[in-house]
Write a structure and sequence with these properties.
- α1 packs antiparallel against α2 and α5 packs antiparallel against α9.
- The termini are far apart.
- This protein is globular.
- The chain is mainly alpha-helical.
- The chain folds into 2 domains: 79 residues, Receptor-associated Protein (Up-down Bundle), CATH 1.20.81; 208 residues, no CATH class.
- It is built from 12 helices and no strands.
- The mean pLDDT is 84.
Length: 305
């Protein structure tokens, strides 16, 4: 389970008050078993970002590292808490929007299967249930938000991510995370080699992470990052190259991340607004199919028919 916003907010307040990190973590963690190892690492003299690396999302880790480099860990912790709050609010709004169509689909699934279940034909009942619920859950699965698991530092796969209608949201969300990590680290003065590792982890599954992971050995040999963009769209490549030459890579990466995130949110909201209509059409079609089949059997069994 990811570390919640309240833990980060408490750590920020305790740090401002001058409480040492081991005591601050003990107070903020409460009875959380997850954070006991973090507290022990802090007592052993490990830095905050290194101690929390196994239990926080890679994007949070990038901001923690930036905060350590700038000496602004309290501001970094507040920023992480605010980001988690915003994500929770967005998830809550999305769930609220989906309540009506999902409930409607489940009611229809029960009613459609009920006649066959009463007649003892469970298999037919399951078929009608799947017909009512299958399209709804397929839409929910295709549009679900995806994130990198806490402590995950898996590098991108060997295949370049391809943006298509199904994967577009997931890939652009991953790109947004990677670009945000790049902005946080660049603005925080994190060394470039460490920045690239954090970006690859935070943006796992996206095009930015794919480019950055493959750029690591080239950058280590002195090649500028601007020469290593390949998978991301051309307009993003040009914007990042120009910004790097002007010394504003972090600002450009943050602007691109914001635009990608906004685009994903707009598409997801549009799909959520269309889902009730889709559910009504699907349920109506299945009911019509059921009714037509029922009366066809009746008329087919009448004498002379």
């Amino acid at each position: 389970m990811a570390v919640g916003a309240q833990v980060f907010r408490s750590l920020a307040s305790l740090h401002r008050a001058g409480v040492p990190w081991p005591q601050a973590m003990a107070s903020a963690a409460g009875s959380s078993m997850q954070l006991q190892g973090v507290q022990q690492a802090l007592q052993d003299g490990v830095g905050l970002s290194e101690a929390m690396a196994p239990v926080v999302e890679p994007l949070d880790l990038a901001l923690l590292r930036a905060g350590e480099h700038t000496g602004g860990l309290d501001e970094a912790l507040d920023h992480i808490a605010a980001r988690h709050d915003a994500e929770s609010m967005e998830a809550g709004r999305r769930k609220t929007t989906l309540v009506y169509p999902v409930v409607l689909a489940h009611v229809a699934a029960v009613l459609l299967a009920l006649p066959d279940l009463i007649a003892g034909n469970g298999l037919a009942g399951l078929v009608w249930t799947a017909a009512a619920l299958g399209p709804v859950y397929l839409i929910l699965w295709l549009t679900r938000p995806r994130s990198v698991a806490p402590g995950s530092h898996a590098h991108p796969g060997t295949r370049m991510p391809k943006t298509n209608l199904i994967m577009r949201n997931a890939i652009e969300e991953a790109d947004s995370r990677g670009l945000t990590a790049l902005a946080d680290c660049d603005e925080g003065g994190v060394p470039l080699n460490e920045t690239l590792e954090l970006v690859a982890s935070a943006g796992g599954g996206g095009r930015v992470a794919w480019d950055v992971y493959r750029a690591m050995p080239r950058v280590a040999d002195g090649v500028p990052l601007s020469a290593c963009w390949n998978a991301i769209p051309l307009e993003m490549q040009e914007e990042l190259r120009t910004a790097e030459e002007a010394g504003e890579l972090g600002k450009s990466a943050r602007n691109l991340a914001t635009r990608l995130r906004f685009g994903v949110q707009m598409r997801r909201q549009k799909m959520a607004s269309l889902l009730p209509l889709v559910v009504l059409l699907v349920v109506g079609g299945v009911i019509a199919w059921r009714v037509i089949g029922f009366y066809s059997n009746i008329y087919g069994n009448l004498p002379g028919m």
